[in-house]
UniProtKB/TrEMBL annotation:
NCBIfam families: PRK07231.1. SUPFAM superfamilies: NAD(P)-binding Rossmann-fold domains. GO terms for biological process: steroid metabolic process. The keyword Transit peptide does not apply. It comes from the Bacteria. Coiled coil: none annotated. Keywords: Lipid metabolism, NAD, Oxidoreductase, Steroid metabolism. GO terms for molecular function: oxidoreductase activity. Belongs to the short-chain dehydrogenases/reductases (SDR) family. This is SDR family oxidoreductase. The lineage of its organism: Bacteria, Bacillati, Actinomycetota, Actinomycetes, Kitasatosporales.
Length: 261
């Protein structure tokens, strides 16, 4: 028995990183997954590896409403219904606020915030039609605390917590639970770009990240995308049946307080 037997879950940004690990874990737990991303080659390859009975890839730029409409249709056609969503896609840009070009700020809002809104808007009616289900939004520790040079990103992640609470209130009577994850530093291409550089050594970079986070994080290491996937599983399964509208921090204790060690 898997924890997601019989479920059909849309996962955005599923071609790599946390979304990829969520897809792998959800399929292992019995779900069928509709994978959306803009990295079509990677997404197609993952869906193929997971098998056509369990996974389908669609090109889904989360900032584009038309893409959502066709993705939901494709998901229903492939698997008969949709009863879950993990709003995972996101982008990060580094700039102090006074140096941030307006276009960059708007791009981050368009993907992270508008993308999450469109995901809720277009998936919730399908989940309601299926009799209820779950939505998990990926925010960040930067939704809860400040960090220099990620102003646009932090603003969108705080907005995702607002969306989560309102969606939980509005969708509870449709039997849809909505929660958010606030990961700390997680070892994916977003925080470890060496994973994308064929000339770099990602293991060396992971070790460097660990050295950095040893000083900042009580658990003394960077997090793994597989660990965030387990939280997404908890929030998507019946194990969290009485939980909605909440942010869940997964950060190795980073936000717990000021470390003096
Ligand atoms: N890595 C971290 O340290 C960290 C920390 C906190 C929160 N997060 C959040 O976790 C989520 C997953 O990030 P990750 O760490 O796996 O990084 P990642 O960069 O490896 O993965 C992000 C995925 O989103 C996809 N994506 C980007 N723009 C898209 C768009 N317009 N439409 C559809 N897909 C798009 C990318 O192609 C990629 O596959 C993001 O929302 C990110 O903000 C990451």
């Amino acid at each position: 028995m898997g924890k997601l037997d019989g479920r059909v879950v849309v996962i955005t940004g599923a071609a790599r990183g946390q979304g990829e690990q969520e897809a792998r874990l959800f399929v292992a737990e019995g779900a069928k997954v509709l994978l959306g991303d803009v990295l079509d080659d990677l997404g197609e390859a993952l869906a193929k590896e997971l098998g056509g009975d369990s996974a389908k890839y669609v090109h889904l730029d989360v900032s584009q409403e038309a893409d959502w409409v066709s993705a939901i249709e494709a998901g229903k056609e492939a698997f008969g219904k949709i009863d879950g969503l993990v709003n995972n896609a996101g982008i990060l840009r580094f700039n102090e606020l006074v140096d941030t070009p307006l276009e960059e700020f708007q791009q981050v809002v368009q993907v992270n915030q508008v993308g999450a809104f469109l995901g809720i808007k277009h998936t919730a009616p399908a989940i309601a039609e299926a009799g209820g289900g779950t939505i998990v939004n990926t925010a960040s520790y930067t939704a809860l605390t400040g960090m220099a040079v990620v102003g646009a990103y932090a603003a969108t992640k705080a907005a995702i917590l607002g969306l989560t609470r309102v969606a939980a209130m509005e969708l509870a009577r449709k039997k849809i639970r909505v929660n958010a994850m606030c990961p700390g530093a997680i070892d994916t291409p977003m925080s470890n770009p060496a994973q994308l550089d064929p000339n770099a050594d990602p293991t060396e970079m992971s070790a460097a990240l660990n050295d950095l986070y040893k000083k900042l994080v009580p658990l003394e290491r960077v997090g793994k995308p597989e660990e965030v996937a387990k939280l997404a599983l908890f929030l998507s399964s019946d194990d969290s049946s009485y939980i909605t509208g909440q942010p869940f921090v997964i950060d190795g204790g980073w936000l717990a307080g000021v470390s003096i060690f």
